[in-house]
Design a protein that fits this description.
The chain is an alpha+beta fold. The protein has 24 helices and 27 strands. It has a six-stranded parallel β-sheet with strand order 3-2-1-14-15-9, with helices on both faces. Strands 18, 19, 20, 21, 24 and 27 form a six-stranded antiparallel β-sheet that branches. Helix 15 packs parallel to helix 18. The structure holds 5'-O-[(L-methionyl)-sulphamoyl]adenosine.
Length: 703
């Protein structure tokens, strides 16, 4: 039997899941469902990467052991996969892999031993002991070369990571090295002979030019005294394996490499090689380091490494907690169906490129493509079958004597016209799916929706129903619409399992669209006389104004991640998370990597002020010009970007908080001598001015 193996990255166990993690899982889940639907035995892996200095530090910050820290984060991931229908119970992943599993230790030690014994293509030892001297970024879990860090402003300070903007760690210690520099030609010949090995092409080119630029040997261990949370190097426990060597190997240990029990339960030979789905942020690790390790160990290379782009906010900025522009999973969960989220993710991101994710965009797509598109097609078709055909699938054929009549009413009497169109669209759908071009795949499906909608609108069944003689024409139109819906529910099963099943059962069909191979769909197999099910809207319309105002109001629903207790309670029975720490907040777990000292905070001079006057500025619709009393000789003139949200008059007399030592700057020709402190929330960044509920004198300092 044909088999298939798909993986997501295993996510760091130092921060809570967010839309980015959800996205890769949705894509992998869609691929896995599509394979299963075609009768291919499929294994789908996701999980967590639980070792390394970053997790060790997060644990320390939160007063947990590293394992407790990992359990804590895993409980949130499991909650997410369950709520969004991605776990085994809902037909999603087959394993939630954790690198702290003992069988993984066994497997990864076995891989190390093999690599340590190997010779490189140039005849050298693949692993050797040396001394590492350089800079390491803990959040990236990667060493940084000069062009990958920002030099410090002050001499003596460490440089900072260009990605995380956090200080790097100086590493100067004995280390094992993997002789990556000997693998450039071998890797280039893989890229050359297997053009589909790294996808899409743009990413492949990036990887090729990185390798052509010359590879440096890779430090693959840290002294246990520096990093103790990890897998010990076999036969040299004073060293801990580099976390990426450990993490990448999960893909093979999960299915039985180096461990009898997993081998029996899953089977390495049965499923390997895998298709690795990753974000472009970690492509190099997967497309260069991982294949090199495998080449050294003499293990077959992955089937492919497919890198997708990153989700940005609607303005094209990277999502981050600090900017306050992250898409919250609990909000998604509360306001949107999983199917709508899956559809949006796959339709909106051109696979391989970055995409923009905003709640408004999601609502618009859900309303136009789902509620008014597919959902409306389904309900109008089924409602008419209910009304005009006694809730039974009508006949799809017209007798000779009625052909002319049908033609006169504008209905195409040649059934193969619509059937042919839909078959072609199906073929395109499958082709694009095979190429993982999900946006185009869905466009192909929606071309069917548009075509059938037009057929109904042109034929006007409601008029045909008034004429007894046109009964056959009416039946044929509704049959074609219903049969198209059957096809759509099969095609869309991997993308929207819930909705596709709903349409399937409303058509009165038994079994599940999950069991029908879309390539084998035959037009006309929908049986005449089938009693349709209860007709219900598949995609209820979302009230945009109401939903956006609820989201903007920032209410924290008791949803997926509402409280730590919720998440902890949801852990699978095999992994009992540590009891929640008192005062632990989401921020503890989300991996704040750069805390400031109290002295840093003291540099900001925050003072109480009182608004003496406020006025609008001509031609600057966002700015208000404020005069503020800080109990200084002169009132301050401060500009604030709040004009769209505050009436100037209402601000006069109000106590506010001012950043008093902000360097003055000119805006629209006016000097602004400080800044008004405000909260900012929602996608548009709505400001809410900070104020006091008790009396406080002007000029008082905030500490
Ligand atoms: N632990 C490593 C992976 C080891 S795999 C052997 C790691 N973990 S991570 O938690 O940082 O996850 C990174 C992955 O999360 C990305 O490659 C991508 O799959 C997903 N995403 C994280 N943020 C994302 C976006 N903003 N947009 C899309 N996907 C994102 O790296």
């Amino acid at each position: 039997m044909e088999t298939f193996y798909v993986t997501t990255p295993i996510y760091y166990a130092n921060s809570l899941p967010h839309l980015g993690h959800l996205y890769t899982m949705i894509v992998a889940d869609t691929i896995a469902r599509a394979k299963r639907q075609r009768g291919i035995e499929t294994y789908f892996l996701t999980g967590t990467d639980e070792h390394g200095i970053n997790i060790e530090r997060a644990a320390e910050r939160n007063g947990r052991t590293p394992k407790e820290q990992a359990d804590y984060v895993v409980s949130y991931f499991k909650k997410m996969t369950s709520e969004f229908g991605l776990d085994t119970e809902h037909g999603g992943y087959d394993i939630f892999m954790r690198t702290t599993e003992p069988f993984h230790y066994q497997g990864v030690s076995e891989l190390w031993r093999r690599v340590a014994k190997a010779k490189t293509p140039r005849g050298n030892d693949a692993i050797y002991k040396g001394h590492y001297e350089g800079w390491f970024c803990a959040p990236c879990a990667a060493y940084k070369t000069e062009d990958e860090y920002q030099k410090p402003k002050n001499e003596g300070d460490p440089p900072t990571c260009l990605i995380h903007e956090t200080p790097l760690d100086r590493v100067s210690e004995e280390s094992y090295f993997f002789r990556l520099s000997d693998y450039d030609e071998a890797l280039l010949s893989v890229f050359e002979s297997r053009p589909d090995f790294v996808r899409p092409e743009s990413r492949r080119n990036e990887v090729i030019s990185f390798v052509r630029g010359g590879l440096q040997d890779l430090s693959v261990s840290r002294l246990k005294t520096s990093v103790s949370w990890g897998v010990p190097v076999p036969d040299d426990p004073a060293h801990t394996m580099y976390v990426w060597f450990d993490a990448l190997t999960n893909y093979i240990t999960a299915i039985g490499f180096g461990n009898e029990e997993r081998q029996k339960a899953v089977g390495f030979e049965k499923f390997w090689p895998a298709l690795h789905l990753v974000g472009k942020d970690i492509l190099r690790f997967h497309a260069v380091y991982w294949p090199a390790f495998l080449l050294a160990a003499g293990i077959e290379l992955p089937r492919a490494i497919v890198a997708h782009g990153m989700w940005l906010d609607p303005n094209g900025r990277k999502m981050s907690k600090t900017l306050g522009n992250v898409i919250e999973l609990d909000i998604l969960q509360k306001h949107f169906s999983t199917d709508a989220i899956r559809y949006f993710c796959l339709r909106e991101m051109v696979f391989g490129q970055d995409g923009r994710f905003g709640y408004e965009g999601l609502i618009d797509r859900a309303n136009s493509d789902l509620a008014s598109g597919l959902g409306n097609l389904s309900s109008r078709t089924l409602t008419m079958i209910g009304r005009y055909c006694d809730s039974r699938i009508p006949s799809g054929t017209i007798s000779e004597d009625k052909l002319l009549l049908a033609k006169r009413s504008g209905v195409d009497t040649d059934e193969t016209t619509v059937a042919g169109f839909i078959e072609t669209a199906r073929d395109q759908f499958l082709l694009h799916f095979e190429n993982l071009a999900f946006s185009r795949t869905l466009e192909a499906a929606w071309s069917i929706v548009a075509r059938v909608d037009k057929m109904i609108t042109d034929a006007k069944p409601w008029d045909l129903a008034k004429d007894e003689n046109q009964k056959q024409t009416l039946d044929v139109v509704l049959y074609r619409a219903a049969e198209s819906l059957r096809w759509l529910s099969v095609l869309l099963h991997p993308v929207m399992p819930g909705a596709s099943h709903a349409i399937w059962s409303q058509l009165g069909l038994d079994g599940s669209p999950a069991q029908v191979n879309p390539a084998e769909l035959k037009w006309g197999q929908l049986k005449e006389g089938t009693a349709i099910g209860n007709v219900q809207p598949v995609f209820p319309r979302i009230d945009k104004a109401r939903t956006m105002s609820e989201i903007n109001a920032g209410e924290k629903p008791k949803g997926v991640h509402a409280t730590e207790a919720d998440a902890v309670g949801a852990a699978a029975p095999t992994t009992q998370p540590a009891p929640p720490m008192q005062h632990a907040t989401e921020a503890d777990a989300v991996g704040i990597t750069s805390f400031i000292e109290i002295d840093d905070f003291a540099k900001v001079d925050l003072r109480v002020g009182q608004v003496l006057s406020a006025e609008r500025i001509p031609k600057a619709d966002k700015l208000l010009l404020l005069k503020i009393d800080l109990d200084e000789e002169q009132p301050r003139q401060i500009l604030a970007g709040i004009a769209q949200y505050y009436e100037p008059d209402k601000l006069v007399g109000r106590k506010v908080v001012i950043v008093a030592n902000l360097k003055p700057r000119k805006l629209r020709g006016y000097e602004s001598q400080g800044m008004v402190v405000a909260a900012s929330y929602g996608e548009e960044g709505r400001p809410v001015i900070a104020t006091f509920t008790e009396d406080v004198p002007n000029g008082a300092r905030l500490k």
